[in-house]
Design a protein that fits this description.
Blueprint: E1 4-12, H1 18-40, H2 45-58, E2 78-84, E3 89-96, H3 102-108, E4 116-118, H4 119-129, H5 139-150, E5 175-180, E6 186-192, E7 212-214, E8 218-224, H6 226-232, H7 234-243, H8 248-261, E9 266-272, E10 277-281, E11 285-291, E12 296-298, E13 308-311
Parallel strand pairs: 3-4
Antiparallel strand pairs: 1-5, 1-11, 2-3, 2-6, 5-6, 7-8, 8-9, 9-10, 10-13, 11-12
Amino acid sequence: MQPKLIIHGGAGSSLKGKGGVEAVRRSLHEIVAQIYTQLAAGLSATEAVVRGCQLLEDEPRFNAGTGSVLQSDGQIRMSAALMDGNLQRFSGVINVARIKNPIMLAQYLQTSEDRVLSDYGAMELVRELGLPSYDPLTEIRLQEWLQEREGNFSREMAGVIAEAELIDTARRGTIGVVALDMQGRIAAGTSTGGKGFERIGRVSDSAMPAGNYATAQAGVSCTGIGEDIINECLAARIVIRVADGMPLAAAFEKSMQEAQQNQRDLGAIGLDATGAIAWGKTSEVLLAAYHTGEAIGDTLEWQNGALTGSLLG
């Protein structure tokens, strides 16, 4: 089976200029190239997803891991999920703090009897595993929070990109990876710092099947406004449609049409067992890149009003 890979770094409104497009493109393409090389060498889909999420979490530009947004109390709380489509096994952590890569906790929980842990439980797991304490705060995110505090947090969400000059009003931040390996196995992973400035205890879609889901037939990772993704149960909806016999592109198109009719603000990436790759959005921009097995492509300048795009396997 020829491996396939697609990743995303969030969704939003508009990239301001070519410099912004190229900076994001460079980050996404480098990560796609690195992970695809490992997939082509025999890495499993699950391991590829974990490693891809780690690289995206380590990129300060994106709202996950290092560079995560601050919540209303000035603290960073992150969530992540991993789903092994072959085993149809979901695991995740919710509102974990002081860790570099939340996706590592989701990976560990794949073999645990308790698959999803929140705040205190997730932090206890960090201690049990002996993972070093890590502060994911960046100066740009701190300044963003300080500015919003002056305005009494009038904005609903922080910027999706941690560089003000790159994004206009984009505010939907998550990273995600979906992979198909040489054995035909599919996995999906999603990680986020949240929407920023939110009420303490708010839970995102990223650690739910609504935002991250995979089976042996398909896998999907979502980004955008978490509440909208939850209301659509978007990732699971798309994957189940594929499992029921609908082509991946058609499943994306129907799901995005429904989301647009419901006035949702979101995006998603996915692939299926045939090697087809698809993406969709109701937001203006989807920050995604993919590897077809032959070449790397992206969706950064895909702003023509279309809801979905796809590539056949």
